[in-house]
Amino acid sequence: MFVMETMATIRSRHAIRQYTGAAPSPAAMAQIETALQAAPVAMGAYDHLHATIITDPAILKAIDDTAARQFGRANMLYGAPVFILLSAKPAHETLGNADYASAGIVVHNMALAATAAGVGCCYIWGAVAALNQEPATVAKLNLPAGFVPCCGLVLGEFAGDYAPREIPSDRIGINRLA
Ligand SMILES: Cc1cc2nc3c(=O)[nH]c(=O)nc-3n(C[C@H](O)[C@H](O)[C@H](O)COP(=O)(O)O)c2cc1C
Predict the structure, then answer these.
(1) What is the per-residue pLDDT for 4?
(2) What is the CA(78)–ligand 1 centre distance, in A?
């Protein structure tokens, strides 16, 4: 298991958008999958979430191409060798905020585990929004019936190391009611 002190991990994590092309080690992937399974989800409805671990270069390219067609931006998966997509099954007609929050929290749990393991990662929502515009690409993902892609995380080795950052204390506004 790769270990980094919790606050050091939180301060070190940042979006990595350049990858060497090398995949994370199996041990690092195992740690990231543990974080996937350990995440909290709304109402404990684990059966309403699904992860797709994509390493097939043809599928990664299909998603990139879809994003480029929809948004006119190439390389939205940054050439990372692994993309973990989180999909949710809507409890009602469309996905609700708890569905998106659960998927996002799973992704963030994995991002922290990746950081602790020294694996590069970046949240991916833009390319997933594009993906949802092209059912033909979604069909390539073999999702269980009723699941809709929400968000994901790209992963891979990167040149460099994580180091704890100074975090400004006023990035997010706070009001205090004492
Ligand atoms: C909900 C969410 C969606 C995001 N979507 C993308 C994305 O599609 N592509 C991307 O490159 N970064 C994406 N990011 C990363 C943010 O741009 C990044 O976390 C933010 O600018 C802060 O930078 P840092 O992560 O390096 O601290 C996303 C982050 C979050 C939390």
Answers:
(1) 83
(2) 13
d(CA 149, CA 131): 8
Q: How many CB atoms lie within 10 A of CB 130?
A: 21
* Tokens linked to 4: 């980094």
User: What separation in angstroms does the CA of 76 have from each of 121, 124, 128?
Assistant: 13, 8, 10
pLDDT band at 92 (very low <50, low <70, confident <90, very high): confident
CA 135 to centroid of ligand 1, rounded, Å: 24
Do residues 28 and 119 touch, judged by C-beta distance below 8 A? yes
Residue ranges around ligand 1 (CB below 6 Å)? 14-15, 17, 104, 122-126
pLDDT digits (tens, 9 = 90+) for 19-63: 999 999 999 999 999 999 999 999 999 999 999 999 999 999 999
- Structural domains of the chain, ranges and CATH numbers in brackets: 11-156 (3.40.109.10)
* Cβ neighbour number for residue 118 with a 10 Å cutoff: 17
Residue 3 has pLDDT above 90, yes or no: no
Residue 124: beta bridge partners? 152
Which pLDDT score is estimated for 1?
82
